[in-house]
Amino acid sequence: MATTLTTTAPDRTTEPRAPHRPVLRGRRRRVNLPAGVAGLIWLAIVLIPLYWILITSLKTQANYFLSNPFTPPTDPTLDNYRMVIEADFVRYFVNSVIVTAGAVIPAVAISFMAAYAIVRAGNRSRFLRAVNSVFLMGLAIPLQAVIIPVYLIIIRLKMYDTLMAIILPSIAFAIPLSVLVLSNFIRDVPRELFESMRMDGASEWGTLRHLAFPLVRPALMTVTIYNGLSIWNGFLLPLILTQSPTQRTLPLALWTFQGQYSINVPAVLASVVLTTLPILALYVVGRRQLVSGLTAGFSK
Amino acid sequence: MTTLAPPVQRRSSEQTSAGGRSGPVAWLALPAFLMFAAFGIIPLIGVLVLSFTQWDGIGDIHPAGFDSWTTVLKDPGLVHALWVTFLIMALSWAFQTPLSLLIGVYLATQNRYREILAVIYFVPLLLSSAALAITYKALLDPNFGLGAGLGIPLLQQDWLGRDNLALGVLVFVVSWQFIPFHSLIYQSGVRQIPTAMYEASEIDGAGRVRQFFSITLPQLKYTIITSSTLMVVGSLTFFDLIFVLTAGGPGDATRALALDMYKRGFQANLMGPASVIAVILVLVGLGLALLLRRLGGRDATESQMEGV
């Protein structure tokens, strides 16, 4: 995923926005032909492979070679899915859940704390200013570039081939973008609210929990989803930091399964569908948060 | 987490001055900082150190001076990897930008049926690179894939078996996954253009095409730079996709920098040279990011500081 951003879009949200909307709608009602055509063609390009994955995963292997790839199977079968599940995918699924939850929850929690501190005292504390610039620089460090020392550290910590080995670097690399997005949101909380909390004698920790947390909850959701998706889909860390089949996460399991059954296209595609299904389900439930999560920090 | 900022301090914090309060707040940033230092900053220094050593990934690490650097810099493989990386970067940029721009402009209207389109556009972004690569590998297989099934010779090529085709497939798959993302960035950019500009130009008799080139495009300048930065810097790190789809092949045709590093380090067990490649990867990434930022001009950096 493209998490290595280095620039943010210029903040034009300060301009009055509300008056544009109704007029915009009127203006845009005129047909924009080239864009519309491009939109529809792209729709087909997106849909055709997705449709193909789905129908093929329901075909038998014999049927797959005989039938037209675009006609749905006459007698759909779930055998491929059974085969995938029997290939220990339940375990890989559980591993992926452990890694994702185990990394995202602490990552978002400590990023939130850091973002809070940076917004509240970033001007006064030299330490916090330094921390902030370290995180900003961190946005530009690609995980691939530091994977060798990470591998070395994990070996020295005697954590090689454990799920913890995937979790720790995942937390670290979720922090920079999370802090950036969250601090942007905390900054939007009116200063008076913090002041009145202080007047009422609330501690910083209390202010964080009872004022900042509820107000920034949508942003926390966004950051959670964004990180969750990239860790769930992560491939490099499991590939390098684990070895035994029992520690596999889903993307890695997909790859090895594909290596074993490359001839059995329907089964391979069933594994693709199965591993995508949980995210797809989440997408249906929380599309708005997900979309804003994916563009977090880029379009704000 | 719970050891920080004990609530007992409530009373005393009332009395202390504003300067004194920054102490306990700063503690809140410590866990995130330590975590990122351990797995981000130290490895970044570590990769530079390791590039001056000899290590097979298992045994002891020996200092080796500039050996790895001279090996890598003399190796024509480096130039090739840089060239492949550049090609993937340039082609995927050239393919994605116009399409994302068009789709983004199109999606900028709030319209029920376009919202449904947006829902579907996003599905590719949810798939892992591994899943995506596996799907396209199956789809493009010359014997069992789409072309063979449909019996169309044009589609029945050895897509991943020929140098240029494999590179083209890679660019296409990347675009398939990321065009929706960039369209969304453009969509929000278009929505921020003041409508008055269009109204004024309409009075002056400008047509749609003229409006697009004279208003939309210039107004989207910073959006284009943001999106391009993401594309360009992001393309340096395509690893999962290339690894699963082509594994760098056929031959070395798609062996980009990140993959080159993996192959040297984790397949040939030459961590020293692999670290050199990693350092080059960081330098190229930073260089490109700075270059694009310069293109953005003064305003872009200013607004970036605003975001800080």
From TrEMBL, chain A:
It is found in: Cell membrane. Residues 1-20 are annotated as: Disordered. Residues 93-286 form the ABC transmembrane type-1 domain. Residues 1-11 have a biased composition (Low complexity). The chain crosses the membrane at residues 31-54, 92-119, 131-154, 166-186, 219-241, 261-285. Coiled coil: none annotated. Keywords: Cell membrane, Membrane, Transmembrane, Transmembrane helix, Transport. It is a multi-pass membrane protein. CDD domains: TM_PBP2. Pfam families: BPD_transp_1. InterPro entries: MetI-like (IPR000515), MetI-like_sf (IPR035906). Belongs to the binding-protein-dependent transport system permease family. This is ABC transporter permease.
TrEMBL record, chain B:
Gene3D superfamilies: MetI-like. SUPFAM superfamilies: MetI-like (SSF161098). Residues 82-292 form the ABC transmembrane type-1 domain. The keyword Protease does not apply. The chain crosses the membrane at residues 25-50, 81-109, 116-136, 165-186, 230-250, 270-292. It is found in: Cell membrane. It is a multi-pass membrane protein. Its main location: membrane. Keywords: Cell membrane, Membrane, Transmembrane, Transmembrane helix, Transport. Residues 1-21 are annotated as: Disordered. Belongs to the binding-protein-dependent transport system permease family. This is ABC transporter. It comes from Asanoa iriomotensis.
